[in-house]
Specification:
The chain is built from 4 helices and no strands. The protein has 87 residues and is mainly alpha-helical. Helix 2 crosses helix 4.
Amino acid sequence: MHTVADFAQERRELEAVLASGIFHRAPNLAQLLTYVCAKYFEGSGEHIKEYNIAVDALGRPSDFDQKRDSIVRVEAHRLRKRPARIL
């Protein structure tokens, strides 16, 4: 099991990415990245599920229906494309 100190470098890198401005006009992407990283750093990677991301990170209501609302898939796709824009 990882400890908080195990991810010190990764946390600094996350903060640098968030501070870089690439998410300045895309707050959902910043929230998604922050949520996924936080869960991973906590050792709670098993909680990184579409429903949890929608409700906990993106502010969708608890009756969120992932079959009708593709926000998580759309934002995840946009997030994967974002770093390529700065390279």
